[in-house]
Design goal:
It contains 23 helices and 15 strands. Strand 5, helix 6 and strand 6 form a beta-alpha-beta unit. The strands form four sheets. A five-stranded parallel beta sheet has the order 7-6-5-11-12, sandwiched between helices. The protein binds one RNA strand through helix 2, helix 7, strand 10, helix 14 and strand 15.
RNA sequence: GCGCCCAUAGCUCAAUUGGAUAGAGCAACGCCCUUCUAAGGCGUAGGUUCCAGGUUCGAGCCCUGGUGGGCGUACCA
């Protein structure tokens, strides 16, 4: 419809230019918008306003010229000039009904786009350190990333979802010795647990698992572990030095290979748990990418060599620095320490190089808002490696604060008492979680009310949308067991002749679905779909409450149920994109 | 100090990317209802879009300067 009107306006402008009513160099870009106020028609164009300056004429005069030159169209009832010079278009109800026909034909495909030459896009999200279960803080990134990926896929991209597993580095070693000490306890050794070790219940669980799978393979006496160590914090020492000393001790007592085995017990257990957790959240990845693998494949060294060859590295006091200030960073960054160890940033440079080398046209990283300071240096690195920096898109997700009614839910990652994502999911359900997390713009802080998410009332948008879907399913079920049957063709014809305002409103909303999806994809804004569905469900409930569906009058019955059928389809399509089920009954 | 993000109705948030009279839902108030799915429906009221300038036909949105809040400013991961 918008294209149709754009064509009409273009034709009108061509005529006016030919007749000399408008200068030839106006270079118009024709925008058609949905009106907010229905007294302004269904669609509107601001073309006259944008041309006013170039044409040196009053916008209302231009609008008059355009409407006079506008070719006739069977799809329009009338056009009107309003306000400062808007041209409003009123669509006939027959052509407004066209969208229902499209929905019936295309089914779950409606709104989706298939691209002949799809853009290859990678979406990396969550990527939490595998040192413990996911907590609620990861939930928003998970829901947002998954939905963005699905939306991009729906609009024609070739998507790969990836989790970057930070399985290298000190934090993972701390996890390994945490498991180890619990394991020793389970063998009856007397252990004083370090201040800085991981204390959650899951560490006990993994230790038990290690004992079951590996017997006493990692067993040493506690005397061997704790003799000649520096002091821990409670004794007036440094907890960081203390835990590092234990890591070193473990490595010596067990030997590198055995320590690594222990390390992998912890890593595998937690990664599997995270994978399972996310799967229950409706999220499945194409790739779990190991940070460790970057070292073993030589990617890190290769990335640094590439930077060095292009003159972006220098050595100072034994440390190797990347000259990121050349690309707008505040300061240069160390990539290799004097002791030869590469930094986390070096791995990240290699990781991004690896991503582009895998042939992705675009790479999207979903990061927590606390990582914003990191964007500049990563962009600097990929630029230095010779990639166009715009091919990396970083979307930051602000924190969500949990409330139970009006009371804030405290969470702390210390002492293992945090609220896990799994607990949240079990309490409020997958659907409400997924929906609530994406219902706000990602760059806004959000409040997540557990009570509201669980409530079964109109106040709860997820419930309200699913309820609309279930209601329609129920009507259709009832219809099928009645003496009537669903005649969609008759319904379409009847709808085309209808002048009912509520129906018009719903038709209008249905027609907006494809562009809402496009918009959501183009801007990485899934909340547009969530809001869209809320509106559609609201309009439908209103309609449903004032119009009986299962009635004698065949024309009304067919048109109402046909319209409802289309609403059901679009709700299902939208909810699917958000990772929310569309239930047949509730 | 510097950098990024945010500020819209009492509360939680929208606003088609610069369009027309800034919209929803809670909460408040006033009516109605007990149903094809029931956990409701209809309506009223509520605004200096943080402040001050600027850009233009037009600004919640863009620019400048403030105010307030969140986050970040590692050779950690």
């Amino acid at each position: 419809m918008k294209q149709h009107i754009t064509g009409l306006i273009q034709a009108a402008l061509d005529t006016l230019v030919q007749n000399g009513d408008l200068p030839a160099d106006i270079n118009p870009s024709i925008m058609i918008e949905n009106t907010r106020d229905k007294s302004h028609g269904d669609l509107a164009s601001n073309i006259a306003l944008t041309l006013a300056k170039a044409a040196r004429r009053n916008p209302r005069d231009i609008a008059t010229l355009i409407t006079q030159a506008l070719p006739a169209s069977e799809q329009l009832n009338k056009t009107e000039i309003a306000g400062p010079g808007f041209i409003n278009f009123f669509i006939t109800s027959a052509s407004a009904t066209k969208v229902v026909e499209d929905i019936l034909e295309q089914g779950h495909q409606f709104g989706r786009v298939i691209c002949a030459k799809p853009e290859k896009i990678q979406v990396e999200f969550v990527s939490a350190n595998p040192t413990g279960p996911l907590h609620v803080g990861h939930g928003r990134g998970a829901a947002y990333g998954a939905t963005v990926a699905d939306i991009l896929e729906a609009t024609g991209a070739d998507i790969s979802r990836e989790y970057y597993v930070n399985d290298a580095g000190r934090q993972m070693n701390i996890l390994a010795v945490s498991v180890w000490l619990r394991y020793l306890e389970k063998h009856g050794e007397d252990v004083t647990f370090p201040t800085n070790a991981y204390k959650g219940q899951y560490v006990h669980d993994i230790a038990t698992q290690a004992k079951e799978q590996h017997g006493d393979k990692f067993l040493v006496s506690s005397a061997q572990v704790f003799t000649d160590l520096p002091l821990d914090e409670p004794q007036g020492g440094d907890k960081e030095k203390y835990i590092d000393a234990i890591i070193e001790r473990a490595s010596i007592l067990l030997g590198e290979a055995t320590f690594d085995q222990l390390f992998l017990v912890g890593l595998d257990a937690i990664r599997d748990d995270i994978r399972d957790d996310l799967s229950g959240f409706g999220i499945n990845y194409q790739e779990w990418f190991s940070e460790r693998s970057l070292t073993s494949t030589g990617d890190v060294e290769q990335a640094l060599a590439r930077l060095d060859n292009s003159g972006h590295l220098y050595v100072e006091e034994g440390n190797t620095w990347f000259k990121s200030t050349a690309f707008g960073d505040d300061k240069d960054r160390v990539v290799k320490r004097a002791n030869g160890a590469t930094t986390y940033f070096a791995s990240d440079i290699a990781y991004h190089m690896n991503k582009f080398d895998r042939g992705f046209d675009k790479v999207i990283n979903i990061w927590g808002a606390d990582h914003h300071g990191y964007i500049t240096r990563v962009k600097a690195a990929i630029q230095a490696l010779g990639y166009e920096p715009d091919r990396l898109v970083v979307k930051l997700v602000q924190f969500a604060i949990l409330y139970r009614g009006t009371e804030r839910v405290q969470m702390s990652t210390r002492s293992g008492s945090f609220v896990t994502l799994r607990e949240l999911r079990e309490e409020v359900g997958k659907d409400a979680c997924r929906f609530f997390y994406v219902t706000r713009k990602a760059d806004n802080h959000m409040d997540f009310d557990l009570e509201l998410a669980k409530s079964q009332s109109k106040d709860n948008p997820v419930y309200y949308i699913q309820y609309a879907h279930a209601r329609i399913c129920s009507v259709i079920d009832k219809l099928e067991t009645s003496e009537w049957s669903l005649d969609l063709q008759a319904g379409l014809t009847a709808l085309g002749e209808s002048t009912d305002d509520a129906e018009k409103l719903i038709l209008n909303q249905l027609a907006k679905y494809p562009e809402t999806l496009q918009n959501a994809a183009a801007n990485y804004e899934p909340h547009l779909i969530a809001n869209y569905l809320k509106d559609l469900a609201g309009e439908f409930h209103t309609y449903y409450n004032s119009n009986k569906m299962l009635i004698e009058d065949a024309q009304l019955r067919n048109s109402r149920i046909t319209l409802s059928y289309a609403v059901k389809q679009v709700i299902a399509n939208g909810l699917t994109l958000l990772g929310v089920d569309a239930p047949q009954r509730m």
